[in-house]
Design brief:
This protein is of the alpha+beta class and 653 residues long. It has four domains: 42-123 and 293-358, Periplasmic binding protein-like II (D-Maltodextrin-Binding Protein, domain 2), CATH 3.40.190.10; 127-289, Periplasmic binding protein-like II (D-Maltodextrin-Binding Protein, domain 2, 3-Layer(aba) Sandwich), CATH 3.40.190.10; 367-517, Oxidoreductase, molybdopterin-binding domain (Sulfite Oxidase, Chain A, domain 2, Alpha-Beta Complex); 523-652, Sulfite Oxidase, Chain A, domain 2 (Alpha-Beta Complex). It has 20 helices and 39 strands.
Length: 653
């Protein structure tokens, strides 16, 4: 076999070539790896209202120039859609900016939807009617006749979807406010109701617009509705639409003509806040109240890049950002306001003033007592109350007669914040709220933690199912003003959907909140022409409204409600009153104890002896076990008639 011969010199040259090649590849690979690391981009995603697109594009350009490894991706949409993408659809973003700042606290900072810790107010705007040189009657329209122009059958106009975009729900508000401004009470009817399924109703000077529907059913020959207001701009520019309700900044940024509407209807001035709030609009998500247009932003808790997001926001609220917004016809708020400066990123705090410092809440002198389970008492005054974290919801109450009252936007402190200050509650405790007149309401653990309340549509009064939890709030403001006749503090059962709740949960003149041991529940059956099962909470609630008491010979105070009230619940079809005529005709009342023992009383005897009550308390405590849960007592009864352990009250005709 022939051997291959390689000289030492050949080996050395070969090895040298191999080594050089390896080193070269390694060097190239290292440079490629280093370059890749250096040039890899970080995506910063921004969900923003459509009306913020152009100023945010200017800020994006400067931020990317200063940070070449960052790709800012703007996703403009209706503000409600922006929030819902983050909170309901699970889409992540680093910055969320809304054309209505209140969407952040009401949809992202609640117990049921905890997606943000703070928000910043950074810009304002005004509503206007935008058009082009080619719009029909462009040479004729002005701030005094615009609604007459829109009435004309050959004019097509539009606004964005009230359920998805703040500009959309502000547009019908402007039209309703116009009725008063121009002394014409058919403007809304002719422009909105005649061309869509949106309606309006009036109650005591407040107008409630109903847009709570997935299909607004616009008459497409006359009216165009799109998801966000900026989508209408192209139609106006290209002639597919004559007029569109827009923010003045959007009209200016896109080179459109626009009317400067009267300040009384354009939602721009804090001086007319009281007028604006006379108009409300019910949407599929919540009810909004007319108020000056204010923009807000936050960094969601689930932001992938919170530190980078804070740097981007600095560009929005610093002098550069202020110039950008002024140039785009969108006045900045200087300095920007924040709800809680301690929660805002540190690099932003130098540009911020705490909102409460600028819009200080002045409450009348008050005293609120918080009582722990062990009796320890903490007393808060008006200054202590306003320093606590606030919540804000829209809603109202339904009275026992079925009327809707007290609609408004309520600001206050979540009851959970207050009871947590004195130890918190468990499933073995309840919360008793007491008013200055002695009226008290008991909230169960389930009500306070699970939001188990019956809710009603504020427009129709019909019972509706709420999809987000109802919070019990200790309110001190309604529509930005301290509570008057019902305050200074009252409880309110409210939620982010703006539904109304039963009135008995709305306790006026609150002075005390105390944690007590939960009592064992029980049920009293009332059996007559109808049947009612009344549990302990229901009994206590009604006993507060219809109290009766009797002091026995041992000076023990028995408290409950009149027997006639309970009979009135089931003696005929009217559960709200005792039928005296029927009682005069005569029937037998049978009171049944839990062990089956019975007592019979004639209805005429009950009529002639008014001081007969069904008692659940003795000396302000639950009855002792031998009487529990209820006992029939009163000065008009013999001791042998004072039946205890009552389980049923039956009428035998």
């Amino acid at each position: 076999m022939k051997k291959l011969h390689i000289s030492k010199t050949g080996i050395s040259k070969t090895l040298a070539i191999v080594i050089i090649a390896i080193v070269a590849v390694a060097a190239i690979g290292g440079v490629w790896y280093y370059t890749t690391l250096e040039t890899e981009e970080t995506v910063l995603k921004v969900f923003c209202a459509g009306s913020l697109t152009l100023p945010f594009e200017d800020i994006e350009a400067q931020f990317e120039a200063d940070n070449p490894n960052v790709d800012v991706q703007l996703e403009p949409a209706g503000s409600v859609s922006c929030v819902q993408k983050n909170t309901e659809s699970g889409e992540l973003c680093d910055v969320l900016a809304s054309a209505d700042y209140s969407l952040i606290p009401s949809m992202m900072m609640t117990e049921d939807s905890d997606y943000a810790d703070w928000y910043i107010i950074f810009a304002v705007n005004r509503m206007t009617l935008a058009y082009s040189d080619n719009s029909k009657y462009a040479d004729e329209i002005n701030a005094e006749n615009w609604y007459e122009i829109l009435r004309r059958s050959d004019v097509k106009w539009g606004f964005s979807d009230p359920n998805l975009d703040p500009c959309g729900y502000r547009s019908p508000m402007v039209i309703q406010l116009a009725e008063s401004e121009y002394d014409d009470d058919t403007i809304f009817e002719d422009l909105i109701e005649a061309n869509s399924d949106i309606t309006v109703s009036e109650d005591s000077g407040t107008y409630l617009i109903d847009a709570n529907m997935t299909d607004l059913n616009p008459n497409t020959e006359r009216l165009m509705i799109r998801e966000k207001s900026v989508e209408l701009v192209t139609f106006v520019q290209e002639g597919g639409l004559d007029y569109a309700f827009e923010y003045s900044s959007v009209a200016k940024q896109h080179g459109l003509n626009y009317l400067e509407l009267p300040v009384t209807i354009d939602l721009s001035s804090a001086d007319y806040a009281d007028l604006y709030k006379t108009v409300k609009i019910e949407k599929t998500t919540t009810t909004s109240t007319g108020k000056p247009i204010v923009y807000g932003l936050t960094i969601p808790k689930n932001s992938p890049n919170p530190e980078l997001a804070a740097e981007f926001i600095e560009y929005i609220i610093n002098e550069f950002g202020q110039t950008v917004f002024n140039d785009n016809g969108q006045p900045p708020v200087v300095p920007a306001l924040v709800d809680d400066i301690s929660m805002a990123p540190e690099n932003l705090q130098t540009y911020l003033v705490e909102k409460s410092g600028e819009t200080a809440v002045e409450l009348p002198e008050l005293s609120l007592s918080l009582v722990a389970l062990d009796g320890t008492e903490t007393v808060l005054d008006e200054n202590d109350i306003v320093e606590l974290s606030t919540v804000e919801y829209e809603g109202g109450l339904m009275t026992s007669s079925g009327s809707i009252q007290s609609l408004g936007t309520y600001t206050g402190v979540a009851l959970s914040t207050l009871y947590d200050m004195v130890g918190g509650i468990t499933n073995k405790t309840i919360l008793r709220v007491t008013a200055s007149d002695g009226y008290a309401m008991v909230f169960t653990y389930e009500e306070l933690t699970s939001g188990e309340f019956i809710t009603f549509d504020p427009a129709t009064g019909d019972e509706v199912e709420h999809t987000q939890n109802i919070d019990v709030v200790l309110a001190y403001l309604c529509d930005g003003e301290p509570l008057a006749d019902d305050g200074p503090l009252r409880t309110a059962a409210l939620g982010p959907e703006g539904y109304i709740t039963e009135g008995h949960f709305w306790v006026k003149w609150v002075v005390k909140i105390e944690i007590r041991e939960a009592l064992e529940d029980w049920t009293l059956t009332l059996n007559g022409s109808t049947v009612e099962e009344m549990n302990r909470i229901s009994f206590e609630m009604r006993a507060q409204k219809h109290p009766a008491n009797w002091t026995d010979d041992d000076s023990q105070l028995w408290t409950g409600m009149p027997l006639t009230f309970l009979l009135g619940r089931v003696d005929d079809s009217d559960s709200k009153s005792f039928n005296q005529t029927l009682a005069e005709e005569g029937y037998t009342v049978t009171i049944v104890a839990s062990d089956g023992y019975t007592l019979e009383l004639n209805s005429t005897f009950i009529l002639q002896n008014e001081n007969i009550l069904v008692s659940d308390l003795m000396d302000d405590a639950a009855l002792p076990e031998k009487y529990w849960p209820l006992r029939l007592v009163g000065s008009d009864l013999e001791k042998s008639q004072m039946i205890r352990n009552i389980a049923e009250i039956r009428i035998d005709y």
